[in-house]
Write a structure and sequence with these properties.
about 140 residues, mainly beta, globular
């Protein structure tokens, strides 16, 4: 049974067959701004398991200036309600989908915090998930 997702106003809809993980809480400044929260939980999905169903014409995007190296940070959202949404036509083998966009349980749980050096002073981690700074994350992924 497909796992459904949508934006706040319901004009954009998508579905996946399954999520593959990882599911990371990103605490970088840009993800915090996009989510309006202390972190943005993103869930990895294989492109072949993803279908964009409706609202393609309402998807807007923003490419933030490059901080370190290309590609730029991209944010896609519903132009009607502002909700973060996945890209309609992803490139590559996988994509990340904001966890809050799912209407159904994607079946994966958060497995780590990343960019924890950017956690604001008004927030703190209150779970036992692994937590990585940028240099630690770089070492983990290389």
């Amino acid at each position: 049974m497909p796992i459904r997702g949508s934006c706040l106003c319901g004009a954009i809809a998508f579905e996946i067959d399954r999520a593959v993980g990882s599911a990371e809480y990103c605490h970088c400044n840009r993800c915090r701004k996009v989510s309006g929260s202390s972190a943005l939980l993103m869930i990895r999905v294989n492109t072949k398991d993803y279908r964009f169903l409706s609202g393609r014409e309402l998807v807007a995007s923003y490419a933030a200036p490059i901080l370190y190296k290309p590609p730029a940070y991209h944010s896609t959202f519903c132009s009607k309600c502002g909700s973060p949404v996945p890209v309609p036509a992803p490139r590559g083998e996988s994509l990340e989908i904001p966890a809050g966009a799912f209407d159904d349980d994607p079946g994966v749980r958060a497995d780590k915090h990343i960019f924890v050096e950017f956690i604001p002073p008004w927030d703190d981690l209150r779970d036992d998930l692994p937590a990585y700074t940028l240099p630690e994350l770089y070492r983990l992924r290389t």
